[in-house]
Amino acid sequence: PLIYRISGAGLRLYYKIRHHRGHGVHSPFVYKLITNVIEEKNLYYLYKDIQELVCNEISTYSRVTKSDFLSFRLVNFFNPKKILEIGSGKGINTLCLSAPSKQIECKCFETDKEKYEIASRLYKNWDRDISLHTQDFPEINEKQDCIYINLDNHLPDADWITAFLFNFVNEDSF
User: Of 174, 165, 107, 111, whose CA–CA distance to 145 is shortest?
Assistant: First the structure.
């Protein structure tokens, strides 16, 4: 059959076409996540506010990426109250993580001083509860609803970090 003669890339493309928009997914939760969050094409009104703030405060060369908007949609879908972000970079993704609600408490950690300064300047004009810290690894006292580790900005040295963070999640955390 023809299917056995298709290369690996061709098989992945064939699978993506067949299972596009959640078709073939049996779990109702995963289907809802794919169709309402990951494959969402609608523009939220906060997208424009975030883009304008980034352009005005950082530069016209910095931009909000698709993965930043995916972070926004995930937080909007799961509705967490406490977010821990390790490796916040220039703070663009933090805006997306904290945008869905003013009740979100977001703790951010960035070790690079230059990125820390840019992020703190960006957060001044954003009316959300964001606390920015410069420690390499956070001191956490309470359970977190969402933990976001940006490996582009923070490269953990050991596997113990993941095991350590599992102590601060609950059954609804993501």
Answer: 174
What tens digit of pLDDT does each residue of 121-164 get? 899 889 999 999 987 767 788 999 999 988 766 555 656 777 78
Q: Are 172 and 109 in contact (CB under 8 A)?
A: no
The residues facing 83 across adjacent strands are 106, 146
**Separation of alpha carbons 156 and 85, rounded Å:** 13
Which residues neighbour 113 within 8 Å (Cβ) at sequence distance 6 or greater?
Answer: 134
Phi and psi at residue 137, in whole multiples of 5°? Answer: -135, 135
Indicate the residue type of 8.
G
Q: How far apart are CA 73 and CA 135, in angstroms?
A: 28
Contacts of 115 (CB under 8 A, 6+ apart): 88, 89, 90, 91, 153
- From CA 149, how far away is CA 162, in angstroms rounded? 10
Question: Which element (helix H / strand E) includes 105?
Answer: strand 105-109
Cα of 49 vs its chain's centroid, Å: 17
